[in-house]
Please model this.
Amino acid sequence: MPFFFFLLLLLLPLLSLLLASASAAAGGGGTGSCTTITPLKTYQKCISLPSQGASLAWTYHPHNATLDLAFSSTFISPSGWVAWGINPDAAAMTGTRALIAFSDPSSGGLLLLPFILNPSVKLQSSPLTSRPLDIPLLSSSAILHATRYIDKGAAVQIFATVKLSPNRTRIHHVWNRGLYVQGYAPTIHPTTPSDLSSLATIDVVSTATEMVPTVSNIIRSTHAILNAIAWGFLLPLGVAVARYLRPCTSVGPTWFYAHAAVQIAGFFLGAAGFGIGIVMGNASKGVTYGLHRGLGLAAFVAGGTQSAALLFRPKTTNRFRKYWKSYHHFVGYGCVVLGVVNVFQGFEVMGLGQSYWKLGYCLALSTLIGVCVALEVNAWVVFFRRQEEEKVRKGGGGGVEGIDQVVKGRMSFN
Model:
């Protein structure tokens, strides 16, 4: 019994530290600094965009309603792409008229091509193909800074001149970047919160800016820490307490109280994390993680039914007790599996699928699994020894002959 609490005290601070750092790291590239001076021209205004360290500089000419602009960002891989575009209708990816810069497969130089992001792009039903834009784009170009070839972290600027509709100065800007280009077709970008919130509506006259609502890093950190500790560690620990302490007659009913305490604490922490997830979902319109949400809902429902089942727990003499136990075991193990799987899915959502933070959680979880495997093997060894001794008692008689048969049985087992 003290071993499990020692393990809990040892690993929970580790999980908290790792996941707090992970959540802070998952915030992605924040705002960058803006400048009105570029290698091609000097602009009148600029603004730091809210994600990916991007910025935008522009000059608006009211006499002919034209907009000169320069979008600045960086590549995230040598084979990646950087895009900026305008959506005539709304601050959304679908419907954006985009200019995408990437390495020319034939020459290796920087290439800028126009794309229209229709609904099939979001569904990934077909490769993205370049085609002329249906907006009055007067000119466009792109340049790299301090390098001739694209590399990770290479700075790029996309220049464009667009003729706007008269008296329409609020423009929906959309930007993003990805890891790969297949031929001349950019592939899907990462889906971290930072990448999915790369949208802004900017008034080119007043510079008034409307950003897509995003969830703060503190809320994301709290959501991650609570759920990883609760669903990813405490609930599996509570199952292990019941599984391996119950056969120990020396602890008496203590195993039950320890099991109940750990599971109740895990469920309430998990419920708090689940509630924060709902708040995050409501605050991030248009950002949906279907698998993560579905797994979380299933785990919460399973945990809730487990807690409610305690109110209807039959007495040991009741003939329905065995059915209740089967239900309790089946739903309990299912809840644990769903919770752990969803923690790993959460790492993917946060863009930490190949990070040291995920490795740290794996080490913590594998430590618990390793202990359970050792205790499971020991439990089966004890079970078979008792079975062997029971057979000897029933068929071996008494006295010295019976003792000799017990000794022989143990020697044959070992």
Remarks:
- The two ends are 28 Å apart (CA to CA).
- Residues 144 and 320 are 73 Å apart (CA to CA).
